[in-house]
Design a protein that fits this description.
- The chain has 353 residues and is mainly alpha-helical.
- The chain folds into 2 domains: 264 residues, no CATH class; 79 residues.
- It has 15 helices and 2 strands.
- A two-stranded antiparallel sheet has the order 1-2.
- The longest helix is centred in the C-terminal third of the chain and has 30 residues.
- The protein starts with a helix and ends with a helix.
Length: 353
């Protein structure tokens, strides 16, 4: 029997092969999916991030950015780190930063190893090649690899903008100990990467923004079921449109939406999605496996309900109401699908001896 991952590879690659896009994203998409498909991946249970569960803090961080509220003020949430417009190295004490900057064996951090791989590559590495290098460095840990890509590229982006050194590694027990810092002149890395923007883009000077946004959305999607990636893209794009954050950037906003959507396909390849087995497949599962799948789906339904409650507070806002209602409609559809799937699996379970 074909495994879920193998089936996902065939479906995704067949879709990509038959879909022609007029922009460069089509090529990037195919290569990213191919890199993940051929990598020898760890299961999530063996990921360094297996005990990190960012879902609610991610959703809260995003929604709080819209309404200009801060509930988690200690800077340790994923939402805080992703939406902070600064070098990740400035967010000390955040576990999502420590895990990529912490110096380990060989006095290197995951970020410093990836930086070395990028700078030593022949030519200009593509997004797929950067992710492939991160997967090798992390031993096939997809979730850590996408976070390393995001943190490294965001670090060098903001360091270059502020004319500072990029801080790629530290002693996680004493991040303020400059004797153990791994520093890099950011332009040495950014110069190696191509500009993903089309010729004539009015924001062409922001070469690195689309790079780190892309991997950040893959990471969020990988740590969840993908709906948070869509929420984060929506939040980011909306705050730009309303002037609540950075200025408008049509290309970056399009990349946000594209990367969030692609995170579902990436999840299918790494085996972290909530795809419900067909009737035939479900019949082959044991009682324990069926019960586990039902629990996963039920938990997903509850988390979506939590997001729905948060968004319901925005419906009467003249600016935020329409997009909030649009997102709520999508959530309700997803909840209905999950409910129907749980009921079907329960019927299969009831027939098990």
């Amino acid at each position: 029997m074909m495994t879920n991952r193998a089936a996902a590879v065939l479906v995704v690659l067949a879709f990509c092969a038959g879909t022609a896009r007029a922009d460069e994203r089509s090529k990037i998409e195919k290569e990213l999916l191919a890199e993940v498909a051929r990598a020898k991946l760890k299961p999530f249970a063996k990921s360094k991030l297996k005990d990190f569960y960012p879902r609610m803090s991610m959703a809260a961080g995003g929604v709080e950015k819209i309404v200009n509220k801060v509930i988690e003020t200690n800077g340790t949430s994923l939402g805080f780190m992703l939406t902070e417009s600064a070098q990740p190295s400035g967010v000390t004490g955040n576990p999502y930063v420590d895990v990529t900057k912490g110096i380990g064996k060989g006095k290197q951090s995951p970020e410093s190893q990836l930086a070395r791989a990028i700078m030593s590559a022949k030519g200009q590495p593509t997004p797929g090649q950067v992710l492939g290098a991160a997967l090798k460095i992390t031993g096939g840990d997809y979730w850590l690899a996408t976070l390393v890509c995001h943190n490294l590229l965001k670090e060098v982006t903001y360091a270059e903008r502020s004319k500072q050194q990029a801080l790629l590694g530290w002693d996680p027990k004493a991040p303020g100990d400059a004797r153990r810092w791994i520093l890099l002149e950011p332009s040495k890395l950014t110069a190696k990467l191509p500009n993903l923007r089309p010729a004539g883009d009015p924001q062409a000077s922001d070469k690195m923004g689309p790079w780190y946004h892309m991997y950040g959305l893959f990471f969020v999607g990988g740590m969840t079921s993908g709906s948070e990636a869509e929420t984060l893209a929506w939040v980011e794009n909306l705050t730009r449109a309303l002037g609540l954050g950075s200025s408008g950037d049509a290309f970056k906003e399009g990349m946000n939406t594209w990367a969030a959507d692609l995170s579902y396909a990436m999840n299918g390849l790494v085996g972290k999605d909530l795809r419900v087995p067909t009737t035939t497949e479900a019949g082959a599962l044991s009682r324990a496996e069926l019960e586990t799948k039902i629990k996963q789906l039920t938990a997903e339904h509850r988390k979506l309900q939590g997001e729905l409650v948060k968004l319901s507070g925005l419906v009467n806002d003249p600016n935020l109401g329409p997009p909030a209602e649009q997102r709520m409609t999508a959530i309700r559809r997803e909840q209905k699908t999950i409910y129907d799937e749980v009921m079907r699996l329960k019927q299969v379970l009831a027939k098990k001896p």
